[in-house]
């Protein structure tokens, strides 16, 4: 007896939101009822994507594009979560003209009021990704998304995203930054200061083009207590944290060799 098949569509789409999108699509062969269910899942999850050459890039672009079109044709114009995990065989594939169109996908997710955004890029080969400080550019639209509740980024260059009046993330509770490069240290300060309800912070191997901090940005961060912050992992970073911002922590893992606590 097909007990799962007796569940309402809302429950079935919720169940499918816990598996990668490719697996959700595979359920369409189960019966006529399941054919269109995956199009209404409130989450897009592309995991374990390995790209070895330009042809792989092109095929993956087309695959994601068709999925978005199918969802829209079914009347689904909302995205609760967008999760992307891409591993490149060579670093240069992340910068070629046929690079998977991450910017367009993120723009689309932001327009759909995404709440959970997880962008993980990496390189399969054992290479020095930090040589010449070259990272794929983070889509600008991320910093216009006021609906974000969690933001997790890996291997991105935060470039020219703070050249405008950054209004912050009023609902952001989780911020994980790993292998991220900022042009200026002050941009990192502005980002943290713009997360008033942040609860979970994980900062690993974050680098900066300039470490000189202007007094005005120091004052911005000192006035931001991060009073909701309860968990913080701070490792592999050459940066300052004011003790006031960490005063309510319940758990702290910190690398004192590279992180300086300012008692103000």
Describe the structure.
- Residues 1-54 form the F-box domain.
- Pfam families: F-box, LRR_At5g56370.
- This is F-box domain-containing protein.
- The structure is a single chain.
- With 264 residues, the protein is an alpha/beta fold.
- Helices cover 23% and strands 26% of the residues.
- The protein has six helices and ten strands, in the order ααβαβαβββαβαββββ.
- The strands form two sheets. It has an eight-stranded parallel sheet with strand order 1-2-3-4-5-6-7-9.
- β2, α4 and β3 (116-123) form a beta-alpha-beta unit.
- α5 runs parallel beside α6.
- The longest helix has 20 residues, at 54-73.
- It is globular, with a radius of gyration of 20 Å.
- The model has no long low-confidence stretch (mean pLDDT 83).
**Helical residues, percent:** 10-25%
| Beta strand count | 10
**Mean pLDDT over the full residue set:** 83
Radius of gyration: 20 Å
Number of helices: 6
Features:
single chain, about 260 residues, alpha/beta, 8-stranded parallel β-sheet, two-stranded parallel sheet, 6 helices, globular, LRR_dom_sf, FBL60-like, F-box-like_dom_sf
Summarize the structure.
InterPro entries: F-box-like_dom_sf, F-box_AtFBL13-like, F-box_dom, FBL60-like, LRR_dom_sf, LRR_FXL15/At3g58940/PEG3-like. With 264 residues, this protein is α/β, with parallel strands linked by helices. The chain contains six helices and ten strands, in the order ααβαβαβββαβαββββ.
Helix and strand layout, with pairings?
Layout: H1 9-16, H2 21-26, E1 43-51, H3 54-73, E2 81-88, H4 102-111, E3 116-123, E4 150-158, E5 174-182, H5 185-193, E6 200-208, H6 215-222, E7 231-235, E8 239-242, E9 251-254, E10 259-262
Parallel strand pairs: 1-2, 2-3, 3-4, 4-5, 5-6, 6-7, 7-9, 8-10
Helix pairs in contact: 5-6
């Amino acid at each position: 007896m097909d007990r799962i098949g007796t569940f309402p569509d809302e429950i079935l789409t919720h169940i499918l939101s816990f598996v990668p999108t490719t697996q959700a699509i595979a359920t369409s062969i189960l019966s006529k009822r399941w054919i269109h269910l995956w199009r209404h899942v409130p989450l897009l999850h592309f995991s374990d994507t390995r790209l070895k050459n330009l042809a792989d890039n092109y095929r993956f672009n087309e695959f994601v594009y068709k999925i978005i079109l199918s969802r829209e044709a079914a009347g689904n114009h909302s995205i609760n979560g967008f999760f992307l995990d891409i591993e490149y065989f060579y670093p240069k594939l992340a910068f070629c003209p046929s690079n998977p169109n991450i910017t367009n996908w993120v723009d689309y997710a932001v327009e759909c009021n995404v709440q959970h955004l997880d962008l993980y890029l990496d390189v399969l080969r054992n290479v020095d990704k930090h040589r010449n400080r070259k990272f794929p550019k983070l889509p600008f639209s991320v910093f216009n998304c006021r609906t974000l509740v969690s933001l997790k980024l890996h291997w991105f260059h935060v470039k020219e995203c703070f050249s405008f009046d950054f209004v912050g993330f009023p609902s952001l509770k989780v911020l994980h930054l790993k292998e991220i490069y900022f042009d200026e240290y002050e941009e990192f300060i502005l980002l943290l200061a713009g997360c008033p309800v942040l609860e979970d912070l994980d900062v690993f191997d974050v680098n900066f083009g300039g470490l000189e901090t202007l007094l005005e940005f120091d004052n911005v961060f000192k006035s931001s207590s991060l009073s909701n912050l309860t968990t913080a992992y701070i490792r592999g970073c050459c940066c300052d944290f004011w003790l006031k911002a960490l005063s309510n922590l319940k758990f702290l893992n910190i690398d004192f060799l590279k992180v300086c606590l300012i008692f103000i």
